[in-house]
Write a structure and sequence with these properties.
- 36% of the residues lie in helices and 21% in strands.
- By secondary structure, the protein is an alpha/beta fold.
- It has a single domain (30-56, 81-218), classed as 3-Layer(aba) Sandwich (Rossmann fold), CATH 3.40.50.300.
- A 5-stranded parallel beta sheet has the order 6-7-8-3-9, sandwiched between helices. The chain has a 4-stranded antiparallel beta sheet with strand order 2-1-4-5.
- Helix 7 links the parallel strand 7 and strand 8 (200-204).
- The longest helix is centred in the C-terminal third of the chain and has 18 residues, at 180-197.
- It is globular, with a radius of gyration of 17 Å.
- The relative contact order is 0.20.
- Bound molecules: adenosine-5'-triphosphate.
- The site of adenosine-5'-triphosphate has 10 residues, from helix 1.
Length: 228
């Protein structure tokens, strides 16, 4: 589902390329753990995969589209349709309820919205179902998210990424605020949700203790070093 070839990315003004990745392949449905020390380029790579940045050279084929060849508007649409992101700080809207926050995951994507409608549910019903599956208690669904614990906010952020079944779920250090038990539980929940429709998970973390949970491990230092 993802294939990178001869990718080079350099931040403006930087002497050296931040990323120089000859090859990277991820199959559909894989659970991938991407690790590397601070500054090794993890966020830069996620920015390229989600189409926020463009490579200087090389190709990034995601679901058979070369992101480097798409216009800015087409990359935005591609991201909204095919990628669900769980951000490190969750990026939830504090004045909205959990259900409303989750529904926002479909806001910019006709195809994700249509997928839910075809299943016969409303967006709100699907949002509620996902929140239940991810373990959010029913009695807090109508609170504003500002009143939720970190672990509860994390479940809302995950449900927002999954709504409408995007093929790729990107999780950028989403467990750094949790203790070890809660981290593992959260990752197991992500896997369960992803396996319901075969989503691919790309999970970024400094915490190598989480690596054994995943099918595949990618080290940014090794990926970058492979050409040098
Ligand atoms: N917007 C930017 N403009 C210029 N340079 C940047 C920008 N963002 C990141 N960099 C540089 O690119 C390199 C990789 O940064 P990046 O944030 O991708 O690393 P990271 O592996 O995600 O780090 P961390 O684990 O600390 O989040 C660093 O040297 C950083 O200074």
């Amino acid at each position: 589902m993802l294939e990178i070839n001869d990718l080079i990315f350099r931040w403006p003004g930087a002497a050296d390329a931040t990323l120089n990745i000859p090859k990277l392949e991820v199959a559909a449905g894989e659970r991938v753990f991407l690790h590397g020390p601070s500054g090794s380029g993890k966020s830069t790579l996620l920015g390229l995969l989600s189409g926020i940045n463009k490579p200087e050279a090389g190709s990034i084929r995601l679901l058979n589209s070369d992101l480097a060849q798409l216009s800015d508007a087409a990359r935005d649409k591609f991201r909204a349709d095919h990628i669900g992101t769980i951000f490190q700080n969750f990026n939830l809207l504090p004045y909205l309820s959990p259900v409303e926050n989750v529904m926002l995951g479909c806001h910019f994507s006709r195809s994700r919205t249509d997928r839910i409608k075809t299943s016969g549910k409303t967006l709100a019903q699907q949002a509620e179902l996902l929140l239940q599956e991810l373990g959010l208690d029913a009695n807090i669904m109508s609170r504003s998210v500002a009143q939720l614990s970190i672990g509860q906010q994390q479940r809302v952020a995950a449900a927002r990424a999954f709504i409408g079944q995007p093929e790729l779920i990107i999780a950028d250090e989403p467990t750094s605020a949790l203790d070890a038990d809660n981290r593992n539980t959260f990752i197991e929940l992500l896997f369960k949700e992803a396996s319901q429709y075969g989503a691919t998970i790309l999970f970024v973390s400094h915490d190598n203790g989480l690596a054994p949970l995943f099918d595949k491990h990618l080290s940014l230092v090794e990926l970058n070093g492979a050409s040098q």
